[in-house]
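Backbone shape codes:
***
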Amino acid sequence: MATPSSFWTQANALLRKNLTFQKRNKKTNIRLILFPFILCVFLFLLQRLIDNQFDKPQFKCGCVCTNDTTSCNDSEKVCGVEYSDQIQVLACAIPSPPEWPPLLQLRAGKAWYPPVYTMLFTADNHSFGQIVSDNMFPSALTMDYSDIMASLASNLLGSEAKPASNNFLEPAFTSDLPIYYVQSKCPQDDLIFPPVYSTGETDAQQYMEKFPFTIAGFHVDKEFRCADGINLWRNSSSEINNELYEGHERNYPERVNTIFSAFDFLNSNGNEFNVTVWYKSTYKDVTNFGPTALLRIPRSVNLISNAYLQYLRGPGTKMLFEFVKEMPKSETPFRIEIASLLGGLFFTWVVLQLFPVVLTSLVYEKQQKLRIMMKMHGLGDGPYWMITYGYFLALSVIYMLCFVTFGSVLGLKFFTLNDYSIQFVFYFIYINLQISLAFLLASFFSSVKTATVTAYIGVFGTGLLSGFLFQFFIQDSSFPRGWIIFMELYPGFALYRGLYEFAQSATSGSNVGTDGMRWHDLNDNGNGMKEVLIIMFAEWIIVLFVAYYIDQVFLPGSGKSPLFFLKGFQKKPLSLCKTLSIQRQGSKVLVQMEKPDVFQEREKVEQLLLEPAIDHAIVCDNLKKIYPGRDGNPAKFAVRELSLAVPRGECFGMLGPNGAGKTSFISMMIGLTKPTSGAAYVQGLDIKTHMGGIYTSMGVCPQHDLLWESLTGREHLLFYGRLKNLKGPVLTQAVEESLKSLNLFHGGVADKQAGKYSGGMKRRLSVAISLIGDPRVVYMDEPGTGLDPATRKCLWNVIRLAKQDRAIILTTHSMEEAEALCDRLGIFVNGSLQCIGNPKELKARYGGIYVFTMTTSSDHEKDVENIVQQLTPNANKIYHLSGTQKFELPKEDVKIASVFRAVEVAKRNFTVFAWGLADTTLEDVFIKVAREGHAFDTLS
């Protein structure tokens, strides 16, 4: 017997198996790696295409020929903002940005009403608020035609034009919309501009001035119309807020809100100035005017500041607001960083693609029962978790390194601008979290198909929800930060948030020519990377712990209670003999109805439990398995109070009809299911608490072949041989002998993948696996199923040789196999052991009859019956068809010589076509015992 393998030996065996399995799946790995590569190439080509489009003249700074011709040399062209449209101006170099007079943002009322613009105000001190608000609107337009620009800055101007995203070009001066100068009361004389509408109504005439001037290189002939400005008192800021919101909700042609601003002076007075400013920032056309547009707020702040200054110093005092301008800039090619723009969504899918790969691999081992098969051959939980987790981590790290490398080589700024160390930490923490999550979720799936579909729905659903919902919450500054953090507890959203921050940093760095994200940027309150790293790291540790706990408690064969981690604080278990003594006192064994051989076996078990013997490898005491009733059906007794002892060197055969409980018994013994009550010991170890120790000396040939489809027969035996601590030449020799003994060596069969094996070849390989490493106890569940006669004979020879110094429990439906291999047999019926003994004893005990057969013409059937009655009146006819009759003759009533004499007499009297006399077969015994067992259960 080989000594139990160490932790590192088991880890080495599993690692070698995984590497071999990985080598078999080269095409799958190539496809996996190609996904991020193809995506990066796609983004690279798309970036090139967009860059080429933006290099066209319509996206460059505008230029014209100085000689007023349509074509000229570049030296004859002049370029700049004044020759560019609104898109081209973004590319222009502007060393000295134009100065624009500050404006109010106005919204007009009905076109046929005189424009009236309302300002709301409130304050703790009503009189103070009234005085200050009265100072806001001037009483007249003051123009100095020798310096029109200075005059425009000193008046209160406003526009209905939508502002742009910058101050290079002011749409109010370049559009056809008029500019309003707001006064407390417009003049009523010299009125012009009386339009007539299709409705027949005539608009009230508006006072208008029109004069030319030059601004920012534009020669403007602009209309300036007068508009009344009024201020209205409200009792509280909440009233103002409601009115502004109501105006926004009623923003349609029949009634357009004309409130352009509102002020709350709060507790302001002559010594303290404290004010809140409201402004309009919502428009129907959100595509052209959104959160990126510049709002005309500075003029409102200057307006209230001037009003307060006049309250303190008199009406002649003024804080002049001359102009607004953009910062100077160099020539800037128009660029869009496509990888940063789409990276959040696309790269989320790239990283999440690993999750279904890991999950389906784990569920596959669970579905095919390969995990428990490895465990039954000695693989401990520690080596399994270390190697499997490390294996998936190595694959994930290689995958992510290829992903980042591809993107960096192709020059995607998403990768090249951000600090690689931050990227490494982020991806490393997340892939660990992802692997831990796969281990956890694998416990809840039993089908690979279900796990695969669910995983991929999660992958694509997470990407879409992140890109079209979660990103909106991130960008909304008014959305509570606490809810953002709460949503980031979902790992997919945390991944997207990190990728989003990388994309934002890369975009900003690309636009201004600086680096992307650096470690010091994580301290920025607007950067969510720091909180994401903390959340993912904490979840990684928690999820890994929970996954390991669930695996230990619920995995078949673990034998651990939910409080296994408190084992050091629990009371020490009683000794084996003492525990059994207590069980004996608490339960009475029903022996009155048991047959003598079964009762003797029970007494033998009791004696062995009181005086343990080292030569008995398997001892079962009152073992019981009950499956609870479901859907109104009663509970099912699979195994009823089984007591059995199997010594070393014996092959014990279990016979019984389908559903008798044979497989349930073996499932309990190998740790797949737990017994309802009773006890069983293998090599002196309890199957309820010490399955880990039992597995080191156990071999199993399950009813269904549990094999890796992509591994060869030789690779299976090498793996399980290493688990049994076979090394070097000993391992090689054991594998070669196993292959040869079971006819798996010649013809390249040994090196063919198991998925290509026939059913019989798989069965032989399963038997070879169960015997590799010289286990002390072997369970074989119908090992000869699906084998041809020649192969079955070869298999029997292997099992006969394997019986030496080991205990074998074998189930079969073949009476020939049972008689050829088994030293003792036990017949099961409805979960109960009906009889036990060697084949000869059973045939002698339950046979006791001869089967006499004679075939004659139909006319002489009665003569045959008379002859049999003369032999023994206790004969029983069991078969009759067209002159052929079979009779059971009790052995104690007849002698074989008498039968021969009777046949000779019959031949002289009539024609006998055929006759025969047979002794009882094992099949006859099996049928008889099965019938008696069913009859007994029916009566009881």
The longest strand covers residues 218-233. Residues 59-91 form one domain.
